[in-house]
Write a structure and sequence with these properties.
The complex is a heterodimer of chains A (113) and B (111). In chain A, the strands form two sheets. In chain A, strands 2, 4, 5, 6, 9, 10 and 11 form a seven-stranded mixed sheet that branches. A four-stranded antiparallel sheet of chain A has the order 1-3-8-7, with no helix packed on it. Chain A has strands spanning 4-7, 10-13, 19-25, 32-38, 42-51, 54-57, 64-70, 73-78, 87-94, 102-104, 108-112. Chain A is globular. Chain A is mainly β. Chain A contains no helices and eleven strands. Chain B has strands spanning 4-5, 11-14, 19-25, 30-38, 45-51, 54-58, 61-66, 71-76, 85-93, 100-101, 105-110. The chains are: A mainly beta (113), B mainly beta (111).
């Protein structure tokens, strides 16, 4: 396993509440990513980080923010959750020099009622 | 049209069959090609990683890239019920660390 831990693994919350998902890695990778996976859409990139305090948007970043204060932790925040953000969220690491492939965590299943 | 096309399946085969999974793409700048396997309620797991054209073999798995046709394949020999999963292809440009993923093909291997 690539040493990626996502927490929580499951969460149910209500519309309008803030939600924070955590990704923790033990591989000291510079690059970290947040994806969501939905039926019919596959994996879509939300945000990524290329270093501590260095982040950028992916293709579906609206409604999400991220922070990275330490190499090992990458947080994804839904400031005010909506039902359209019900999804499975995956964290990935990798993609440094030499185009190393990404490795994924086991996901957080988020339901927003 | 999505950059990477992958038939969602499901593809159902008997145990022991040879399985062929495929992706087509439109971006000629893609140079790195990956196959991931994803079991239900788990994250994608890297199976194969290849650069440019040609074949790569790892046990029962063979990855094939044909850049002239913009077509990649994953072959599974002697398929097992434990191979039942969703298989995602992914590819990236040289110098880019963010791959483009296919939507995945669901494979069912029945005993």
């Amino acid at each position: 396993d690539a040493g990626i831990t996502q927490s929580p693994r499951h969460k149910v919350t209500e519309t309008g509440t803030p939600v924070t998902l955590r990704c923790h890695q033990t591989e000291n990778h510079r690059y970290m990513y947040w994806y969501r996976q939905d039926p019919g859409h596959g994996l879509r990139l939300i945000h990524y980080s290329y270093g501590v305090k260095d982040t950028d948007k992916g293709e579906v970043s609206d409604g999400y923010s991220v922070s990275r204060s330490k190499t090992e932790d990458f947080l994804l925040t839904l400031e005010s959750a909506t039902s359209s953000q019900t999804s499975v969220y995956f964290c990935a690491i990798g993609g440094q020099e030499g185009n190393q492939p990404q490795h994924f965590g086991d996901g957080t299943r988020l339901s927003i009622l | 049209q999505k950059e990477v096309e992958q038939d969602p399946g499901p593809l159902s085969v008997p145990e022991g069959a040879i399985v062929s999974l495929n992706c087509t793409y439109s971006n000629s700048a893609f140079q790195y090609f990956m196959w991931y396997r994803q079991y239900s309620r788990k994250g994608p797991e890297l199976l194969m990683y290849t650069y440019s054209s040609g074949n790569k073999e790892d046990g029962r798995f063979t990855a094939q890239v044909d850049k002239s046709s913009k077509y990649i394949s994953l072959f599974i020999r002697d398929s097992q019920p434990s191979d039942s999963a969703t298989y995602l292809c992914a590819m990236s440009e040289g110098g880019s660390y963010i791959p483009t993923f296919g939507r995945g093909t669901s494979l069912i291997v029945h005993p």
